[in-house]
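Homework help board

Subject: predicted structure for assignment chain

Our instructor gave us this sequence and asked us to write out the predicted structure in token form, then describe one feature. I got the tokens but I'm not sure how to describe them. Can anyone check?
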Amino acid sequence: MLSENLRKDLKNPWLRAILITIAITVAVNVVFISYAFFAPPNLVVKDYYERGKDYFHDANLRQEALPTAWRLQLMLPKRMQVNQSVDCRLYVMDHEGKPIESGKVMVSAYYASDATHDFSVSLQRVDTGTFLAPIRFPIQGHWDLIASIDRGEQHFDTAQRVFVEK
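My token output:
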């Protein structure tokens, strides 16, 4: 008797539509959860947790070092396209406003959603306080650039987010 009522109910188009909707919702959620476990999103830095813990401690150190900090300015064109080489220019001045003449200068580019596209470029000195290198982005989207200069024990960096068009 119960099975006959169930068979009648399952012939109702409204009940079928509700059951199909629930089944599709559950299936989509299973797919998304599986994708999150098997292909987790990449982070910009691998040691994000340790860096986050040290953020406030580092902020105090940065505040204390402010009077002796160098000024870095990263210059890129306003519009950049995929696989098009553009000049990446970094201007560096010391705490007194004098241009820096030497140092190891690097620009690291991080693609937030896929670390396999991350790369670094070494900049060469072209003038006093000016470092330059051509840079080419392999895919479109938002990129985080971190320009850093090391000279002896001194290390300074600056960050900038850019968008690369198709």
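Reply (TA_rk): Your tokens look well-formed. For the description, you could write something like this. The helical segments are 2-10, 13-38, 48-53, 55-65. That's the kind of observation they're looking for.
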